[in-house]
Amino acid sequence: MSNEQRVLRNALGSFATGVTVVTTRTADGRDIGRTANSFSSVSLDPPMILWSLAKTSSSFEDYRQADHFAVHILSADQSEVSGLFAGKKPDKFEGLGIDRGAGDIPLLTECAARFECRTTYQYEGGDHIIFVGEVTGFEHSSTPPLVFHGGQYGRLVRHAGETASFEKRQDSLSPDDFIYQLSRVFYRIRGDAVAERQRRGWTGADYAVLTLLGHEDGRTLDDIRHAGRYRGDEITDETIDKLVSHALIRIETAGGQAPRAFLTTQGRRAMIEIVAMLKASEAECLALLDENEVWVLKQLLNRLATSTATGWPPVRTEAVATSA
After folding, report:
1. Does residue 127 sit in helix, strand or coil?
2. N or C: fewer beta carbons within 10 Å in the chain?
3. Which residues pair with 140 in a beta bridge?
4. Which pLDDT tens digit goes with each residue over 70-97?
5. Measured between alpha carbons, how far is 307 from 33 in angstroms, rounded to an integer?
6. Strands of 47-54's sheet, edge to edge?
């Protein structure tokens, strides 16, 4: 590939596409499939679609001779399937659940959409052949599709329209500041749980101890105090004594080691009740988003939450490509 062709390919990669796998069955009865993003609708009446294949492809002649093929639009969690059919594994269908279509062609399952086609036309397209197929059957779901852009997989983020613009002030946060929006969501989710904590007579320091032990039971008292200060709560001896007297925690000292705190059965039950309230509020808040938007939101927040400071559980750090 020349440098000019490489630059052109990169420029074409600026156009975000879905990812498809095109399958068919060869004349000698083999199932074959290839990953392709050269897919487009052509006509609704009659229903027709197209895709293209390089003449240098090892399966070029098999697709040229096939009477039927199927185009599968992959769902957002099928990037591994895309990689499988873009690779050189001899039997790409091994271990995959498939259905059968016209001409006994293999049909992949759990895709965002699937189109069974009869090969209608084949056109010369430079170093490719353009296949046009008449759609003889199709299936689709609400599952978000896999997206490919700039050499990376991603997911769609639906555009919610332009947000209002607010005058920026130096002495306060405006409604379009990230910290302002994050704080509003945070306080909205924890509102009921805070009210319940107050009803139980728990201070912020009390709740900090119980939360820390919920994350990791058996912490030392010094560890708890340090983590509390990091979170903005001053945990004193009086805090510990109060929780012990209310049978929410117990203190154990073994073999001359530093004292460690553990949730009692009553303390764990109380935390489960509070967490259940938080989860219910979270679910109510996230109900405003669809499944795809929730997934993207969590992945982006996870990427930002990289703190390893004492007091917080570990953060997953796997790389996730997202497209907006």
Report:
1. coil
2. N
3. 113
4. 999 999 888 899 999 998 888 899 888 8
5. 44
6. 31-36, 20-25, 68-73, 113-125, 128-140, 47-54, 39-44
